[in-house]
Amino acid sequence: MQLSFDSRPAAQIETPALVTYVFEKDNRIEGALAALDQTMGGRLKRLADSGEMTGKILETTLVHDPPGLAGTRLLLVGAGKPEKFDGIIFRRVAGLALRSLRTKSITRMTFLLREGERNFAGAEAAVEGLLLASFDSDFYKTEKKNNKVMESAALAGAEGASIEEIEKGMGRGRVIGEAQNFTRTLVNEPSNVLTPRILADRAEAMARECGLGVDILDEKRAAELKMGALLSVAQGSIEPPRVIVVTYTPAQPKAGAPVLGLVGKAVTFDTGGISIKPSEGMDKMKYDMAGGAAMLGAMKALSALKPAIKVIAVVPATENMPGGKAQKPGDVQFAMSGKSIEVLNTDAEGRLILADGITYAKKLGCTHLVDAATLTGAITVALANVSAGAFTNNHEFEDRLLASARRAGEKMWPMPLDDEFRDLIKSTIADIQNISSGRGGGASIGAAFLREFTDDTPWVHLDIAGTAWLDDQKPWAAKGPTGMPVRTLVDLAMNM
Ligand code: BES
Ligand code: ZN
Ligand code: ZN
Questions:
Q1: For labelling alongside 26, which of 13, 236, 332, 434 has CA 20 to 30 A away?
Q2: Total-model pTM
Q3: Conformational region of residue 318, where left means phi above 0, alpha means psi within -120 to 50, and beta covers everything else
Q4: Which residue has the CA at smallest separation from atom 5 of ligand 1?
Q5: Of the listed 46, 197, 277, 406, which one is catalytic?
């Protein structure tokens, strides 16, 4: 999709579709919209007065041959109540516009920025919303009948803002939106295509293209490093595991500066292992590498945005299969940190591979850690598919990350990680066990297990099991991978 900025006044722009948004309030026709309405001889005011255009969230009103405008159509998208308007809603508005125009075979559009998005990076968010909306999950359809592509999208408007600032924002939006779609592309791949080795190949190709450092550890090197927790999961599969390490180093590294570690779970398929999952819905478990894919997407964006600090992604990648050599419930494994683990459930495998990922990230010098993982079904019991859960051993660091999430427009909610959870993962035979000896709090138990490997390093764990995948399509997004939390991680690295 071609992106550009059109500095002409909205009325003069020849475009198949001029798009903007309208709030749900009595004087809906205000600001830039009022100016447009004047040119249109009060058409918008009449649409509002008639009750046809209410401004309700995601309502669409399409005006053909708008009088006085050079554009062929004017599409107005409802933005809801102005006091609730934020970057999340704004991205959805832009995304919905793209997807609804596309179904009408309209392949060029111009999105008119107004005053409502002044409180956040409007140009950046608009571009992100458009790029995310242009993603589709139908990779392997041999005939793509109904899928017209939006060939070009321009932004316009935002009187008073400098064109330079807008173009900078658009550039950032493009980098971040494309990185998020890179993540979604990886997550959408079926597990027969995307094995741990292929994921490593794709990561390596991306890193080389982007000028990032890359090191792929194979199963031999993982064994030399004594990554017993990762290898215990991998042993049930004939596909060997990989540990993908991608590094961004700033041009002028400062001594004593923080080093951010991004550890992502990449189970390219989770059958549950010997503690096998029920077959219903098991196909979705190809998405169990979404955390790892998000880290790779974040690195891709950071290679272009160039943060001041060093950032290292560590992505342990494996299948979780019930092969003849698979580990069995009750087996005891030694993690790279030296801790012994009683594996009471082979389906709680994400925490095992992350344990070694976290230890390795610390060994590489990371001073701050964020992990992202489709770790537990329990997180959706607490937060449904609305927010990712955030767990931490350091609330100051968590607050910074949550501030990044708000700026980036990705929903996250802080979850408890009391010391008491430690008691629930004490094992009889080993140091710790990988599931709770009690009931409930499953997402916190998973986090408590990971905490055992962080020691004093400030760390936030993001459980994205409920938010990495859309089970149904939305007006602004395709069904399938969401690419969260790429934007938050990018914002965090840029602001550390
Ligand atoms: N990959 C799953 C998490 C998951 C489960 C995501 C269901 C989406 C839907 C993870 O490896 C897992 O199986 N977790 C178990 C942990 C349990 C055995 C303690 C779970 O959540 O059921
Ligand atoms: Zn599992
Ligand atoms: Zn899993």
A1: 13
A2: 0.98
A3: beta
A4: 377
A5: 277
